[in-house]
User: Fold Histone-lysine N-methyltransferase SETMAR from Cyanistes caeruleus.
Amino acid sequence: MAELSGGSEAVAVELWPPGEAPPAFQYSPDSVAGADGELDPTEVTFPGCSCRSSSCALPQCPCLRRGHNYSSLGLRVPEQQEQPFSRPVFECNSLCCCGESCQNRLVQRGLQLRLQVFRTPRKGWGVRTLEPVPRGRFVCEYAGEVLGFAEAQRRIQAQSPEEPNYIIAVREHLHDGRVMETFVDPTRIGNVGRFLNHSCEPNLFMVPVRVDSMVPKLALFAAADISAGEELSYDYSGRFHNSPKASREHKPPEEENSLRKPCYCGSRTCASFLPWDSSLFSTSAIPKIK
Assistant:
């Protein structure tokens, strides 16, 4: 079986079917600084904790001052909640005194599940799990080049409508009204996350997780129990549970419809098109449109 990561992941990423492969790109398990050099996700700016126990605990560990987010191999996901997770997540980092087995180190360990990148009938390449995934389990990171706004906009405006767009923009709304933006582009350098397809009823959700600095890792977790062989997906718009009202609240003019890409997720609440924002071609923020 062909392997996609070139041995750079702790667990092999399989390719299917034999003899086929996606267009060439450089595989990187972690995000890297973009060509614009504006942000370096490998820079360490957070101080480390002084905990010397095998696993950090409240209230002693400053890394956990916003709460203990992890349980075993995943998030502590509340039951009966429409948005499964919205709290900030800070992991222990490279300057912390705790050991590598600390429970507050999860996303930084990278891929631990057996995943397969496969050719889908209508959506190009996709990702499926080769083993059962329990709700809340960390699945993979969406890794690529971390860009500043200007470079992200330049790249997306240079694309033709026929080209796939992998750039994602994540906006975090702070309590004081500020909005933090993170732009990640796995087009040239990326990991298995770049092949995840959109769904209007996804089985994954994304959480920004910070380890060494304020530049987050875009971590994807299971929103429900997922069976072996099931395709993995998330909502490119950032919603978790789609609804017909939400997906159709903005009806773009016909000229914009001609640029939008159709959605083939097949869910009962399918919006017919992938998430769209007309500000994509203006000076406003950039959405994830694949």
